[in-house]
Amino acid sequence: MRLLRSHLLLLLLASSAAGSLLRTVPEEPSTISSGGGGGGGGDALYCDSWRLSVETNDAGPWTRIPARCIAFVDEYMNGERYASDSEVIAGEALAFAEAVEVAGDGKDVWVFDVDETLLSNLPYYAANGYGSQDFNETSFDEWVYLSKAPALSASLKLYTELQALGFHMVLLTGRAEVQRNATEQNLLFAGYGSWTQLILRGASDIGQTAVLYKSKKRAELLAQGYRIHGNSGDQWSDLFGSPQATRSFKLPNPMYYIS
Amino acid sequence: MRLLRSHLLLLLLASSAAGSLLRTVPEEPSTISSGGGGGGGGDALYCDSWRLSVETNDAGPWTRIPARCIAFVDEYMNGERYASDSEVIAGEALAFAEAVEVAGDGKDVWVFDVDETLLSNLPYYAANGYGSQDFNETSFDEWVYLSKAPALSASLKLYTELQALGFHMVLLTGRAEVQRNATEQNLLFAGYGSWTQLILRGASDIGQTAVLYKSKKRAELLAQGYRIHGNSGDQWSDLFGSPQATRSFKLPNPMYYIS
């Protein structure tokens, strides 16, 4: 033990940050930072951890945000953080895209989900408890038919940049075919244009999980000769399943979960 | 955005019904929250977004943390947030585990990675720039042979709780077979015990990516009749690949990336 400690001391002295190491090395069998969750950070600390677990899919399927996190989600979505998170992820997508060799035959595509990816339904969710209430299909469909959802700014910028790089846009949404006109109208209103395909759920897709439906549609795209370089979506069910894009980009969404 | 927010406030005051949304929607094509990344939040805002993109794997392969994020990662790791994030994820893992029917034949297993999952190398990384420096295998191996890494508190608690539920523990690490004794000694020092298998990289595994090596080992476990219910790791390469556990749990690690 003493020998080990002196070795550790040598390691400390050799390092450029010995001071901070001294603080953290335990004398006895020990653990790192117990009790952080209850250490006074309260709802903000818990809710930020809950949000991470949602974004990493650790939380698994869930139906409503925790009641104690409503104010947190409000602040996250309407403050700087949601925009910043979206921008950093879009920047990483663009950095990847810039390294792709685009053939120029119209077959190099990027797949985008629609809701909470290209379009933001934040106005609707702000009026409906930020995901703390049970999903109300009737009132959400009323919102969809208004065709007034704004663009997610980082996605609109990425969309335009990808088009400038020569990628073609495929929009793959869980919305139903009956909502095609309203969706197209909303996308144009928000500033999107010139997509190659807008794929909505047809009669035979209704009732399938998003993972199954979207994987099937990606397979059809490959069968049509498209090369799917990137896939951007706010749900893991936009991205998981086979076949996948070369790179998948999970956008933040702490308001709802789709399996 | 400020305009949108004031409209939303009106909306909230007026009614929660979707019909009133008509009044609150922007009149012109609009976007949600432009410019958040440069809106004065500075390094903390950027680094928190960078961290999310790492945890969601949006960042893709990376070698060093951004230089501007060293202080952020220090504070994240040593403050309440790392502990809280780890605890919330461990809680979600336990909630899943409690719903599993354990047969009692010793074949119901949970796979744990070792570094930054069961054991914390935070003392080492605190002395070496929190991942801002190139990885130095020699000095890291010296640290490994000290066998003094503390437990990650949330993982030790989960490990013990899973054993109480009847799960058997399989430890699957990228460490080399030559480090078996030091690793066992460290695990025992940190409070872990009674694992079923500790799997390290053998001669034939050296040079393989972690995804390939760990998937292969999970396949061998299935071939041995084990049922892999859960898999906890701080790298996506601990969790991706086939076969997978029924549920995978990504633990936080903003200090390094392993492909």
Radius of gyration of chain A: 23 Å
- Low-confidence segments of chain A, given as residue ranges, are 1-28, 34-40
State the CATH superfamily name of chain A.
HAD superfamily/HAD-like
**Structural class determined from secondary elements of chain A:** alpha/beta
* Beta-strand segment tally of chain A: 7
What is the CATH T-level topology of chain A?
Rossmann fold
CATH architecture of chain A: 3-Layer(aba) Sandwich
Helix and strand sequence of chain A: HHEHHHEHHEHEHEHEE
Q: Helix amount of chain A, in percent?
A: 40-55%
How many alpha or pi helices of chain A?
A: 10
β-sheet strand percentage of chain A = 5-15%
Which overall shape of chain A is indicated by the principal axes computed on the Cα atoms?
globular
Overall average pLDDT of chain A:
88
Structural description of this entry:
Chains A, B: This is Acid phosphatase 1. Chains A, B: InterPro entries: Acid_phosphat_B-like, Acid_phosphatase_pln, APS1/VSP, HAD-like_sf, HAD_sf. The structure is a homodimer of 259-residue chains. The first copy, chain A, is an alpha/beta fold. Chain A has one domain: Rossmann fold, CATH 3.40.50. The first copy, chain A, has 10 helices and 7 strands. Chain A has helices spanning 2-14, 18-24, 42-55, 70-78, 80-98, 122-126, 137-146, 153-164, 180-190, 210-223; strands spanning 31-32, 108-112, 151-152, 168-176, 197-201, 227-233, 247-250. In chain A, strands 5-4-2-6-7 form a 5-stranded parallel beta sheet, with helices on both faces. In chain A, helix 9 links the parallel strand 4 and strand 5 (197-201). In chain A, helix 4 crosses helix 5. Chain A is globular and about 55 Å long. The termini of chain A are far apart. Mean pLDDT of chain A is 88; it is low at 1-28 and 34-40. The interface between A and B is large, with 82 and 83 residues.
